[in-house]
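Quarterly update, task 2.4: glutathione-bound model.
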Amino acid sequence: MYTLYYSPGSASLAVHLALLELGVAHRLEKLDLAGGAQHAPEYRRLNPRGQVPTLVVDGQAYFESAALLMLLAERHPEAGLAPPPGSPQRPAYFQWMVFLSNSMGAMYRLWFMPADLGPAELPSAVRDAIRQKIEEGWAILDAHLGANGPYMLGAKVSVVDLLAIMYMRWSRNMPKPATEWPALQRFASLMRGRPSWKALYAAEELTEWAG
Ligand SMILES: N[C@@H](CCC(=O)N[C@@H](CS)C(=O)NCC(=O)O)C(=O)O
């Protein structure tokens, strides 16, 4: 049994999707981020960063969405959501998980939560630079999918795709949404056609970008 601390549509979305793809038993604990629930001392004991997601596995809490995805894939190898050690796709698996989390995720954090850097609003030149970095990322991912798709690791869906579709969704109200790139658009259609996507929308009561 897993417990996922989440907020609808947030960085917990990919982990929630993984639990649904795996079909494993899980309990959901919704956090009211706007109300500051992430700062409550009881929650900070689980996640000292005061963020979602947190996943409790066998009574132990862990954080960081990409790490949680890799952990889930490893605990349920029969689902094939990550290439096994030594397989030809393994290096690309590491590369894209880190790229998505470290580059796209970090830029998004600054885009949506500029207060991380101090001021509540960033100067427009800095905001433009962040947007450009995100768009550069989409161009890299689009080129990769165009040449090697339909999924990020080729023929089979993996946790890389769950992370990618979460970040794509976050671009929906940006000046150039990820779906403006053709291979990413095709990828989004595939991912949003999966039963896990519908189950996610029902469980998190999401409406926008249903597909
Ligand atoms: N690198 C972290 C980022 C998590 C993150 O930024 N979560 C946001 C929601 S998308 C959050 O909890 N924000 C509340 C806050 O920072 O107060 C991950 O991927 O898990």
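Highlight for this quarter: Residues 10-11, 33, 38, 50-53, 63-65, 105, 109, 113 surround glutathione (CB under 6 Å).
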